[in-house]
Amino acid sequence: MAGLKTFTRTLTVAAVTAAALIVTSGAAQAQSLIRDTEIEELLRDFADPLIVSAGLNKRSVDVYIVNDPTLNAFVTRGQKVFFHTGIITEFETPNQLKGVMAHEIGHISGGHLARSSDVGRSAYGTMLVAGALGLAAILAGEGGAGAAILGSSQQFATLDYLRYTRINESSADQAGAQYLERTGQSGQGLIEFFEKFRYQEVMSQQNRFPYFRSHPLSSDRIDSLREVVAESPAYKAVDSDEDIHRLKIAQAKLNGFIDPPQTTFINYPEQDKSEGGRLARSVAHYRNADLVNALRNIDSLIAEFPDNPYYHELKGQIYYESGRAEKAIPSLREALRLKPGAALLEMALGQALISTDPVLPSERESRLAEGENLLKSTLRTEPENGFAWYLLSQTYSKQNRDAPAKYAVAEQAYVAGDMQRAQDFANRAMEGLERGSPQYRRANDISTIARATSRDQRRR
Q1: Tens digit of pLDDT for each residue in 382-406?
Q2: DSSP reduced 3-state for 295
Q3: How far apart are CA 437 and CA 444, in angstroms?
Q4: Is residue 291 in a domain?
Q5: Which of 79, 119, 123, 410 could cysteine-pair with 426, CB 3.0–4.6 Å?
Q6: Domain carrying residue 96
Q7: What is the signed CA dihedral for 342, 348, 349, 355, rounded to 10 degrees?
Q8: Which three-class secondary structure state does DSSP give residue 67?
Q9: Which of 230, 265, 295 represents a domain boundary (last residue)?
């Protein structure tokens, strides 16, 4: 997003800017992944204190957003937590979202997935679907998230067969309540969430929300959790105004990018002059190819909140994805100035810079050089960002640097798990790279690993 941004050009969404809505094709459309700097930052700010209170390293726990309107959140092997957009937009308070976060972190700290790793190994079909989803996400542009799903595809198969035991669910509840208490937060939100959907207990597995198919509810479980939460010193703690506001903005952004524009116009009518209302309408107008009204709404937000990098980012995205890369550059520069070092913002500006074609050769070279530096900075932060590798290969190609371009393609293919292509391009890159240079050594490593991996795959 640039709010929400797109790494792909499939479906109705277009190119990438800073954050990205990654849309995959075919049957996997409902399970695409979203990248957005602002929303990722919100989720990390909510989750990190809980992760630390659980005794885990926050750098080792990854948080992902799945573009799916259903209620669901789950963890996979490798300490990866996934939240459906539906569960983010459905919550009425930040405390409810934090409660689910604490519960999922309880599954990680309790080692529930590790102990169940042998379950469901025969669910090969589910594993293939998950693997295809991961590959599609990578090819769509986000290597890190796609690789996470690919790496967890066996666990997806396990989850398809596994129904958490009541012991594990209750254990995660109790652990989550402790993490909330340690961070001075109430556990009421989790109880409110469970109470709201208690009726799911009596529904068939087919009709239940995905969350309650893998996290079955029971009255005893809710009652036990309520007793623990009621005794907590933080029982009456309330959400801060800032957290409430940030969640509402995230919901408006998600709704604007995901819902049909007409639905957004109904839910956020013109008379709604709130920050979230204008944001949602700006996105909906942009998606409706109404550039005038999209810019009118986002400009009103920039005038009121000039130091908000994400509104400048959204304006840059609107221009870029409307075929006006030249006009996108100033807005994306301002976004990055306000949020220095943000990897996805660097990638957005880098993409815009290399997409323009100035008349003066010196200006063209300058923009390509700047774009190259920005993309390299992105990759230092996110070395498995497949789309950044793709953009870097395009940059090298426009600079007539054939060997580095092939090397970047090899990196992209390696991240995507396409070992044959990775090996081919790594070998071709080495023919033109200086022997012993960092790129040469890395290309040689890719070639060696890809060859061995392909051999093992054929043997299996």
Answers
A1: 999 999 999 999 999 999 999 999 9
A2: helix
A3: 11
A4: no
A5: 410
A6: 25-230
A7: 160
A8: strand
A9: 230
